[in-house]
Amino acid sequence: MTVEQNLSLWTAQIAKELSVLQKNVDAVAALLAEGATIPFISRYRKEQTGSMDEVMIAGIRDRIEQLRELDKRKEAVISSIEKQGKLTPELLSAIAKSETLAEVEDLYLPYKPRRKTRGTAAREKGLEPLAEKIFSQQKINLSELAASFIDSEKGVNTEEEALEGARDIMAEWISENQETRKNIRELFWKQGVAESKVLNGKEQDGQKFKDYFEWKEPISKVPSHRMLAMRRGEKEGILMLDIFPAEEDAIAAMEKKFIKSENASTEQIRLAIKDSYKRLIRPSLETEVRIESKMKADEEAIKVFCTNLKELLLAAPLGQKNVLALDPGFRSGCKVVCLDKQGKLLFNTNIYPHEPQRETAKSKTIINELCEKFNIEAIAIGNGTASRETEAFVKGVGLSNKILVVMVNESGASVYSASEVAREEFADYDVTVRGAVSIGRRLTDPLAELVKIDPKSIGVGQYQHDVDQVKLKQGLDDVVMSCVNSVGVEVNTASKELLSYVSGLNSSIAKNIIEYRNQHGPFQSREELMKVSRLGEKVFEQAAGFLRIRDAKNPLDASAVHPESYSIVEKMSKDLGCQVKDLMNSAELRKQLELKSYITEKVGLPTLTDILSELERPGRDPRETFEVFSFTEGINEIKDLKIGMKLPGIVTNVTNFGAFVDIGVHQDGLVHISHLADKFVKDPNEVVSVQQKVQVTVTEVDVARKRIGLSMKNDPFSDSPVQQKSKPAGKRKDEKPPQREPSMEEKLAMLVSKFKK
Q1: What is the pTM of this model?
Q2: Between the CA atoms of 471, 474, 475 and 481, what dihedral angle is there, to the nearest 10 degrees?
Q3: Which domains does the chain possess?
C-alpha cells in the first residue's frame, strides 16, 4: 500500500474518531506535509480545516505519527511471520484490523523469535504430543500416557518429568493466547493495585519518599505526580514498586477460559495456568502496565507544564518603559542596571544597602541619581535572596509616586546569564549584570525574554526531569511557538531567539534577519523581508502574518492581516471610497461592509471575520493589561507568618495536587487541591493559573522544614462545603469560557491512551 493510500486511511480513521469531516483532516495532513506550521494553519487556513484550533491540529499531527508507527510495526510483524511460512489469511486479516500496538504484539507473540525457554526445551524432548493430549481434556489414563513419554536419552526419566515438561508447553500456549492476554490486561487496569514499600535500611535516606513507605492505590486512580514520585523513589533505590491485581482473580479468569471439564487432566491444566500467570503473564503485563502508566503520567505532567508555561509566557507586559532593575543580594550587594525603552543596557553598578556593609545613604543617593539621569519609569526587583529587604529599601528612597516598583519572578535568570545567548549579547559583562538585565526585561516583555531560556529551567513544571524528554520538548516547543505567534513579533526590535519561534523561521533565518536589519536599517515593509537570505516565498507565506512592522507605509504591515489578503482589504476600502487607513480608524466605515460579498472559492467568512476583527484592533496583543502587585509589608520571612494570616500572593506553579504561591517570604507555600476552593476541584487549572494574583490564608507553618500550608477557602479551618467561587479575574482578553462538553484535546488524549494499550 502506498504512503498516499495509508495517509487516506489514517485521516479517515481520525475523522471518525473525532467526529469531524475527513476533508478537513485531509487538509491538515496535506498542509503539515507541505511544511506548514500549526499556528499558520490555525490562523490562516480556517476554510480548509473547518476552523480547527491549534490543540486539535497538533493532536491530528501526533495521531498521524502514531498510526504511521502502528502500520510500520504491522508490516514488520507480517514480514517476520511470512518468512516463517506461517502467515494465514485469517492471521493477516487480524493483524491488519488491529487498532493498537498491544493487539499486534499479542498476535505476534506465538511467532516471535525467542531464546530457549522451558517450553522449547520440553518440545525438544518430544513432549508436545503429551501436552496436546492433556490440553484437549479428553478422558485418558494420565499415568500410562505420561509413562509412554519416558525416554532417558532425551532427558525424561520419570512420569513427573514428562508431566512437568507438558505443563511448561501448556503454560506457553496459555500465555500466548490473545483473548487471555486481553482479559488479564483489562483486569490489571480495572483491579490492579500500585503498591510501594520502603527497602530495608533505606528509611533514613529516603525521608522525602516517606509518604510512600507503605502505600497502596488502584492503578486506575493513581495521579501522575504520585506515579512519578514512586518511580523516582524506585530509581533511587529507596522504594520497591509492584503493580498487579489479586492473583486469585486473575487465575480464576484464566481457569474459566481453559478448564472445560473435570478429569485426570484438569489438575495438570490448573498447575499450568498458575505457572503461566506467575512466570509468564504477570511479569509481561506488569511491565506493559508500568510502561503505559508511566506514559500516562508523563502526558499529565507535560500537560501541566505546558499549561503553566503558556500562562507564564503570556503574562501581562509592562510595555516599553525606561527600567532600573536590581538583582538583590546581601554580602555581594545588589547589582543595578538601567535599560532604555527597547531594553538596551545603558549603565550598571553595585549598591550595598544591606548587612554587612549597610551603605544605605550612599545607595539611596545612587538610586535617586540614576532614576533622574535615565528618566526611570519603573523599578524591577528580582524575587530571590534579599528581595523583600531590597523592596523595602527602594520604597524608602523617596522616589516619585509615578515610578512603579515591581517584584519580578527571576526563575531561570541565572541559567540565562550563563548561557551562550547571554554571552553573545553581553560579551563584555559578567553573569550578575546579565541576570539583572534579564530581570528588567522580564518586566517590560516577559515573552520576549523568557524565550531565551530553556523552558525546563523556568520552574513551572512537576517532575519534568523524569518524563519523556522528547515529548516534553515537543510539547514545550509547541507552546512557545503558539504564544509567540499569538502575540506577534515586531521585526525591527525582536531578538534572534524570539524571531526563531515565528512560524516558518528558524535560528539560521532569524540570524539573517538580524544581520540584514543591522546592515540596511529597519525594515520598511513586509515585502522587504523577501530580500533576506534564505527567506523565500514559502517561508514568507508562513511567517509574514506574524511579523509586525510598526509605522510601515502600508498600515496592514503592523497588523495580523496576512499579505495574501491585502487585496481583499484594498477592495473593501475601494468599495467604500476610502483609504485602508481610514477603514482601520473608522468603525462607521467598517459597519458598512457586507462580508458575504467578498467570499470567494478560497476565502470564506472565517477569514473575512478575522480580517474585520484585525482592522478594528490592528496588531492587538492578547495578553492582559499590566497591574502592579505588592506583598504585605512587614511579612518578609517565614518566621513572620502566623496561622490565620490573610495575605496576597502570586501563583508560581500549578500541579495536579495543588498550586504553589509566592507570598513574599522567599519560600512558596502550597495550596493543596482540597483548599483551592470551597467546593471539590478535580483539576487545579480550573481555579488558578500561573501568575494569577490570589488571596490566601496561612494554615500551617513549619519553619524547620521550610513548609507553608495555604488555603483559598472562605473558611480554611472548616470542612463544610459551600458554593465554589468562580476563578478570579486575570484571564487574557482572548480567553474563551470553559466548555463542559468533552474537548477535542480530551478526545485526542483518549485516543492516545487507547493506541498505547
Answers
A1: 0.87
A2: 180
A3: 3-111 (1.10.10.650), 323-444 (3.30.420.140), 627-730 (2.40.50.140)
